[in-house]
Amino acid sequence: MAQYTRVSGSVGLITLQSPPVNALSAAVRQGIVDLMQRALSEPEVKSVVICGQNGIFCGGADIKEFGGQMSGPPLIPMIHAIEAASKPVVAAIEGIALGGGLELALGCHYRIAHSKARVGLPEVTLGLLPGAGGSQRLPRLIGVPAALDLITTGRHVTAAEALKFGLVDQITDHNTVNVAVKFAQRVADQPLDARRISTHPCLCPSDVAVLFEEVMQRVRRTARGAIAPIACVQAVRAAATLPYNQGMERERELMATLFTSGQARALQYFFFAQRAVGRWSMPSGARWDTSKPRPVHKAAVIGLGTMGRGITVALAQAGFSVVAVETQEKQLMEAKQAISGMLERGAKRRGVAPALDKINYGRNIQSVADVDLVIEAVFEDMALKKKVFQQLSAVCKPSTFLCSNTSGLDIDQLACQTRNPELVVGMHFFAPAHVMKLLEVVYGPKSSPLAVATAMQLGKKIGKVSVAVGNCRGFVGNRMLKPYLEQALFLLEEGATPEFVDQVLEEFGFAMGVFRMSDLSGLDVGWKVRLADGLAMPDPTMGQPTRLRQGRRYSPLGDLLCEQGRFGQKTGRGWYQYDKPGSQVAKPDPWLHSFLDEYRARHALVAHRIDHQEVLERCLYSMINEGFRILEDGIAAGPEDIDVIYVFGYSWPRHRGGPMFYAATVGLNKVLERLEHYYQAHPDVPSLQPCHLLRKLVASGSPPIQKWREVIKKVRSQL
Ligand SMILES: CC(C)(COP(=O)(O)OP(=O)(O)OC[C@H]1O[C@@H](n2cnc3c(N)ncnc32)[C@H](O)[C@@H]1OP(=O)(O)O)[C@@H](O)C(=O)NCCC(=O)NCCSC(=O)C[C@@H](O)CCCCCCCCCCCCC(=O)O
Ligand SMILES: NC(=O)c1ccc[n+]([C@@H]2O[C@H](COP(=O)([O-])OP(=O)(O)OC[C@H]3O[C@@H](n4cnc5c(N)ncnc54)[C@H](O)[C@@H]3O)[C@@H](O)[C@H]2O)c1
To answer: Residues of the signal sequence (predicted)?
Structure first.
């Protein structure tokens, strides 16, 4: 909807009204079309101002409409009509002008923005391009290089930056609508021809062809298979090389291709999934909207290794006072230096002062007595963690929340060491903790809704996307990683190379294949866990590792590499070789290939030809199958939780929506059929056995992903 008022006698004020972000729904578009006609027909009205209610100009097209039959007046002619109007139209931009919202403003003759407003064309993040003339008007207004930057990244810019670009005409600290109305009165009689951006020539640098070539190469390199960034470059190239009308035609063609692509559907699903995870619930029925968090002012981090340092930086940067405790003197010194460096670099990037004074360092756990929340990040060793939780429980205020950054140990066992187990949750960060967006908030059987709500809110405050999950070995992310890693090893045993498996996964869109990723994070991490589990022990009778452990197929390949001191990048050798320890350039290693040949010969394994399809299906479907088990067990409340965890924590390509959305795209019956096929071929691999929920979903006609929760509820109620 939109509302019309006449202000100061001669200005028609059109206010977009569609909470929460004044998206351009059919009703809003209809309102704008009708009210523009009214303003143009009233002789007293000399100029028009368009603004949005509640201090928000417009969040763009209504993304919810994209999924269905679109109705109402189309956006492109609506914006053309505004630009063609005989009376000046001024956009009063408060809050945000994004996507179609900015395109609407670009159709206006003038743009006045509040100093705190942000503008941008984020369509690329939804698998689209600015398809209401944005790709053609923006380069004409601010030049090709700046337009390419904004359109291919989708980044939001501040009002000050927008003014520098010439994207807005004026910024104000006062009431933007009042300023815009006065401005509209001043320009009421001025000629409009030069203000119609579509009539401007496109501002191109002399080496524009080289520029497009360079940008296209960069975009292809970083897109990981996403098509929208490439279409964005093509659309801007059309603006630079074609007359406006032909450019608009090209924009329309490209948009039509994107609009109906699976990638746009995946990215739009993911947009809503990110928001859905904030509406968490627990099996007890506790929910985000009925559970109040308690404020946290002062926090502590215990253990300043890789993770503790990043967590300390994340907390300090968000303004929290932090007590940082490390028992080892040498580690403490190194940590202080590393944390200060990270804070200084971060502050320089953001143009603010480094938050060095937010942190108090110490070696004694007693120094955390008065904090509101503790995050433990000591070694992944249950005995040590239990001891630390006992100490914390004795030292801290009774109301202090005690959280663990464990990668997968039982939160309940830690809670049992404390006086107030209801205040214990997992806060599982991802490395590097000050950079990675994901936080798994893990509730155990005793965790209270208060503790979950507090950890979720803290996550939000430090800029994380937080997902509440249940307590089980590996939680959601690492639990699903296990069958994925396991399949990758089995594929090596059966004839594949690490290079081939990685290539297939990287072509699929992962930032790194499974073996390059293992080399980066360190092969010793998983080895220690397998040793602790009694899995990585060599067979004592044979002096040889066997391939069956605890009743199921087991690949000792990773253990054998670790026994040789091949821990990955840090030792300069792993699944690949590196020029020196710490180097990041992975090179195929002939030693590894001979080692694999010998290993296969020793175990009478005949290498067979493994193709792309087999790598993808075995690695991904086994992981997806575990995802269904996680849903069935109630560890994740819905598929969105899993998808958000995988995109933000494990570099799953966003344009494929996440593993569960991908399963829905491939077709659940196909996933089931292929899992059945592989399970038949490998009956000693339980992770390939299709789980009950997957079968149930297929039996229910493979409903769309938005309906899975209903089936999950039924399956769980029958357990
Ligand atoms: C706006 C934000 C920055 C606000 O952030 P904040 O953190 O404050 O709040 P939330 O993110 O939690 O959002 C609150 C609430 O609002 C919902 N929401 C936000 N934005 C939208 C939106 N644009 N539409 C619908 N709903 C929205 C959000 O989901 C939350 O609700 P929930 O219930 O989920 O909690 C932030 O929200 C944000 O960044 N929003 C997105 C901004 C954006 O990306 N805008 C661009 C939209 S796409 C667009 O504008 C396209 C245009 O270029 C025009 C395209 C023209 C279309 C023409 C169609 C041609 C098709 C051709 C096909 C031909 C086919 C054929 O030939 O057959
Ligand atoms: N490294 C990762 O990628 C990663 C990712 C997510 C979670 N985690 C988890 O985070 C935790 C820490 O991992 P990390 O990689 O940072 O380990 P790390 O080995 O780098 O650091 C652990 C630090 O804890 C210190 N420490 C040990 N006992 C202590 C005590 N009683 N009091 C104070 N400090 C103590 C050690 O001196 C060391 O500096 C583990 O539980 C791990 O599973 C790690």
So the answer is: none
Q: Which residue has the tokens 């399809």?
A: 613
Query: Which secondary-structure segment (H or E) carries 176?
Result: helix 176-186
Q: Domain total for the chain?
A: 4
Same domain, yes or no: 468 and 587: no
Which residues is 111 bridged to in the sheet?
Answer: 91
SS (H, E, C) 485-499: HHHHHHHHHCCCCHH
For residue 123, indicate whether it is catalytic: yes
Confidence grade of residue 604 (pLDDT, cut at 50, 70, 90): very high
191 lies in the same domain as 54: yes
pLDDT tier at 550, thresholds 50, 70, 90 = confident
Burial class (CB in 10 A: 0-12, 13-18, 19+), 375: buried
Which of 42, 44, 94, 103 is an active site residue? 103
Q: Residue with the nearest Cα to atom 18 of ligand 1?
A: 21
Q: Residue 305 in contact with residue 327, Cβ under 8 Å?
A: no
How far is ligand 2, taken at its centre, from the CA of residue 379, in Å? 4
Whether the pLDDT of residue 248 is over 80: the answer is yes
Tell me the two tokens of residue 625. 């199958």
pTM of the model as a whole: 0.96
What is residue 114's three-state secondary structure? strand
Which positions ≥6 away from 346 have C-beta within 8 Å?
Answer: 313, 317, 354, 434
Reading across the β-sheet that carries 11-16, which strands appear in turn?
A: 2-7, 11-16, 47-52, 89-93, 110-114, 170-172
Domain hosting 51: range is: 2-259
Is residue 123 in contact with ligand 1, taking CB distance under 6 Å? Answer: yes
Domain end marker among 572, 602, 632: 602
Using CA atoms, how far residue 226 sits from 222, 230, 231, 510, 515, in Å, is 9, 8, 10, 12, 23
Q: Which ligand is nearest to the CA of 272?
A: 1
From residue 694, alpha-carbon distances to 320, 335, 477, 690, 699 in Å are 44, 46, 19, 7, 9
ipTM over 0.90: yes
Q: What sign for the dihedral angle of Cα 302, 278, 512, 559?
A: positive
Q: Which two tokens stand for residue 149?
A: 């930057």
Question: For ligand 2, which residues put their CB under 6 angstroms from it?
Answer: 302-308, 325-328, 331, 377-380, 384, 388, 405-407, 429-431, 521
Domain contains 269: no
For the chain, the farthest-separated pair of C-alpha atoms sits apart, in whole angstroms, at: 99
